[in-house]
Amino acid sequence: MAFRKTFISEETVKKIAALVVGILVFVGCVSSRHVCAQQFYGTITGTVTDPTGAVVANASVKVTNVDTNVTVALKTNNAGVYVANNLTVGNYRVEGEASGFKKSDASPSTR
Questions:
Q1: Cα–Cα dist 31/27, whole Å
Q2: pLDDT of 104 strictly over 70
Q3: DSSP state of 103
Q4: Strand order in 91-97's β-sheet?
Q5: How far is CA 47 from CA 11, 12, 31, 53, 111, in A?
Q6: Distance in angstroms (rounded) separating the CA atoms of residues 8 and 15
Q7: What span, in angstroms and rounded, lies between the C-alpha atoms of 24 and 92?
Q8: Which one, out of 11, 43, 57, 109, has a CA that is 20 to 30 A from the CA of 2?
Q9: Are 109 and 69 in contact (CB under 8 A)?
């Protein structure tokens, strides 16, 4: 039985090391794509009430970004609460409407 020694040249080792580093950098960039591209979001929440202070369930609420004109349509829950999530930073107009009530507008809000 004979043993044969194999030597890898220094140049080959450097090429392999560079390739491994390149692959690690690529994988790191691809997997952390969302970390590098951050965007800030916010929430607007409120309660719709009538003039006596009673909550208004199932009221229609529209939250509109006045800069982009993007609108989110919502309904209040049984406690009269609405929640608009994942809103990009900007100025917003909030409108509320319910059967038997006058339309209400609160604008603009910076969130």
A1: 6
A2: yes
A3: -
A4: 71-75, 60-65, 91-97, 104-110
A5: 70, 69, 40, 10, 17
A6: 11
A7: 43
A8: 11
A9: no
3-class DSSP assignment, residue 33: helix
Cα gap 72→64, rounded to integer Å: 6
Question: Do 20 and 66 form a contact (C-beta atoms < 8 A)?
Answer: no
CATH of 41-110, one of 1.10.540.10, 3.30.450.20, 3.50.30.30, 2.60.40.1120: 2.60.40.1120
Task: Determine the distance from the C-alpha atom of residue 44 to the mean position of all C-alpha atoms in its chain, rounded to a whole number.
Answer: 13
Model confidence pLDDT, tens digit, residues 11-40: 776 777 676 666 777 666 556 555 555 678
Neighbours of 111 (CB within 10 A): 17
pLDDT at 81: 94
Convert the pLDDT of each residue in 48-60 to its tens digit.
999 999 999 999 9
Q: pLDDT tens, 76-99?
A: 999 999 999 999 988 999 999 999
Give 26's Cβ-side CA count (13 Å radius). Answer: 6
